[in-house]
């Protein structure tokens, strides 16, 4: 299951936030603005962290914000938000976070496939610092293995 093409609408770079909830709201806004989810999905992503803790911080500096499939998810989607200044999610080892991925999936099966693909990207130890430093969509796409010449922006 290949990761989706990233468009301008699915990436926000160097966003200023005060805390982890705002960081998740940025990712959630990208998901809802691209019509992958309803706005309610953002609150569900926050609720996951409030209920289960900061397990969404999957590597040093990287959070994978997500919630279970539901009626508020219209299509599988991945978004990327980098933060102007890192924030703490409360993870004992992987805080602070400078990159937040927002993941919305329509089925449990697609969740497993997408998480595996995301893990492959972040097996490269340079991926998180490269994303955190990215200033263009092409730099973000390069981290995910996409050539800027081979992917056009999605509307």
From TrEMBL:
The phosphoenolpyruvate-dependent sugar phosphotransferase system (sugar PTS), a major carbohydrate active transport system, catalyzes the phosphorylation of incoming sugar substrates concomitantly with their translocation across the cell membrane. The enzyme II UlaABC PTS system is involved in ascorbate transport. GO terms for biological process: phosphoenolpyruvate-dependent sugar phosphotransferase system. This is Ascorbate-specific PTS system EIIA component. Signal peptide: none annotated. GO terms for molecular function: kinase activity. It comes from the Bacteria. It is found in: Cytoplasm. Keywords: Cytoplasm, Kinase, Phosphoprotein, Phosphotransferase system, Transferase, Transport. Its main location: cytoplasm. The lineage of its organism: Bacteria, Bacillati, Actinomycetota, Actinomycetes, Micrococcales. Residues 4-147 form the PTS EIIA type-2 domain. GO terms for cellular component: cytoplasm.
């Amino acid at each position: 299951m290949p990761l989706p093409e990233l468009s301008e609408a699915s990436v926000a770079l160097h966003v200023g936030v005060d805390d982890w909830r705002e960081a998740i709201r940025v990712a959630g806004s990208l998901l809802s603005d691209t019509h992958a989810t309803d706005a309610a999905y953002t609150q569900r992503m926050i609720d996951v962290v409030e209920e289960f803790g900061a397990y969404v911080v999957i590597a040093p500096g990287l959070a994978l914000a997500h919630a279970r499939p539901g009626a508020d998810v219209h299509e599988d989607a991945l978004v990327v938000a980098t933060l102007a200044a890192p924030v703490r999610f409360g993870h004992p080892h992987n805080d602070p976070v400078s990159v937040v991925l927002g993941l919305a999936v329509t089925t449990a099966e697609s969740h497993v496939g997408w998480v595996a693909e995301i893990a492959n990207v972040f097996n490269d130890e340079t991926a998180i610092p490269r994303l955190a430093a990215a200033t263009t969509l092409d730099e973000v796409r390069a981290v995910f293995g996409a050539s800027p010449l081979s992917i056009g922006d999605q509307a």
